[in-house]
Amino acid sequence: MDKKTILAIILTSVIITAGMLLTQYVNERNAPPPTASSYSVPEEVTETPAAEPEASIQVEETVPDPAVSELPEQNFEKKHIEEETNLFRIVFSSIGGVVLDIDLLTEFDKSEPISMVLDGDTDSGTFNLAFGGSDAPYIRDVFEHQRIQRGKQIIHNFSRKYHKEGRNFTLTKSYRIIPDEYLIE
After folding, report:
1. 161 and 178 Cβ atoms separated by less than 8 Å
2. Which end of the chain has less neighbouring CB within 10 Å, N or C?
3. Phi/psi of residue 20, each to 5°?
4. Cβ distance 76 to 142 under 8 Å?
5. Which H or E run includes 30?
């Protein structure tokens, strides 16, 4: 390489790095200070096989009315929701907004589709959440379900409002399915 090419690569790297550091500094400076009662949902990023889905979880915190300490009763229907693509069939439960079963429709074991959820017959499903530590019980409340079609994408949202430690927030679990793909986000 000639000197001009090396100099161009070095200058480009310096400009990109400086831009990233400046953006990070501005974002940190403009961010509100964290509060002791903030809710956060840890995200684990792990590499998973293509057929194993990942859940998207959102927590939307709202400022409560001081006169209201509890939320109104939420009576959502207990139901199982089944979605089928040409590659797999997935079954959701509105109880906890969990995935009960995923059957691969192109892979068989003794003429039966292979199930990707191995919870036995407990009906507890997968992608469970809990408020508290690792020994806290799973959330077994009934969530509101909404199915959204965006082009080829199919989105299943499960949401429920909560009141904890003097705060109101909405917990939403979203599953995005794209036909012709094994990946579920």
Report:
1. no
2. N
3. -65, -45
4. yes
5. helix 3-30
pLDDT digit string, tens, across residues 9-35? 777 777 877 777 777 766 666 655 555
**Which pair of tokens denotes residue 55?**
């859940």
Convert the pLDDT of each residue in 35-58 to its tens digit. 544 444 445 444 444 444 555 566
A 10 A CB-CB count for 175 gives 22
Contacts of 52 (CB under 8 A, 6+ apart): 116
Cα 30 from Cα 12, distance rounded (Å): 27
Neighbours of 17 (CB within 10 A): 10
Rounded-to-integer distance, Cα 41 and Cα 12, Å: 37
Rounded to a whole number, what is the distance in angstroms from the first to the last CA of the chain? 44
